[in-house]
């Protein structure tokens, strides 16, 4: 049994590591092996050293882009099609060969085990200014996931993305933008005059009920209770980068029933008349917002296109469709709604998610809660 010169050391993640210096084609190289226990790490190290002494040791020479492709293939079986396509798009910013095999790809062509934090920093710095801060942060997150997977598979001995941080510039908001009251008024007025009642209703429902885009487009007439003034989310209509896809809601708590505000309920009743004149009385399984082919919902990108044109015409700073939902949550909290209620209405998995997204609103509200003991005494008697 080969002897080990290095003893296992415990890492911050709880695993044990043994570092070895072996020879590959006559060249000394340092490798690490890991185990849940010190004994497991030692056993793996001895096995590897035995193979090296027999000339059977070769390191994995996978390129970063090659391993990222394998990771994307596995993720494609675990997440929704639209999410998988977003992962590919985000990684493609850092690893261009994922999108175009002929594109120059300095990081992607580098062997996985040779990537250092400086290489990650160089790529992310190159993206800053060309893309939004949020996009660059998502690219970093995807790279971290790829290298974390390689670390778990013992293909690398550390994650080179860990030390690389992206800080939000001073004065720049981390959260989505909530519309100001005057912007909401202008947008709602424009929606009432919009030439396409379907996209107008979609944008209104996202703003008035806090729906995600996919949840809104996935509504059927049977999900509405116009008498009771509620709607129920049970599905989502998204796209996988090529076509529309019907899926379950994002999380278990995303399936929910939410109240419809009175003004929006009145628009829904008017929309019902418009729909009936063109397509006949809707059935419970009919799409609330049908596309040009009524057997399918509206194009998932239609609300984005409509909102972009509206904000440009109204002079409102650029908005994402998701900012309509963000505005709903922000104004609910700003008007005193309990955190748990807002989390429930928005379909968040737990209130901690709501707290993380809307912390800035809550901090502002907390500063307004001041108790003056004098107020407890009631009106003062006149002298």
Automatic annotation (TrEMBL):
Coiled coil: none annotated. GO terms for molecular function: DNA binding. Residues 174-372 form the Tyr recombinase domain. Residues 62-151 form the Core-binding (CB) domain. It comes from the Bacteria. Transmembrane segments: none annotated. The keyword DNA-binding applies. Keywords: DNA integration, DNA recombination, DNA-binding. InterPro entries: CB, DNA_brk_join_enz, Integrase-like_cat_sf, Integrase_catalytic, Integrase_recombinase_N, Phage_int_M, Phage_Integrase. GO terms for biological process: DNA integration; DNA recombination. Pfam families: Phage_int_M, Phage_integrase. The keyword DNA-binding applies. Belongs to the 'phage' integrase family. PANTHER family: PROPHAGE INTEGRASE, PROPHAGE INTEGRASE INTS-RELATED. This is Site-specific integrase. It comes from Meiothermus hypogaeus NBRC 106114.
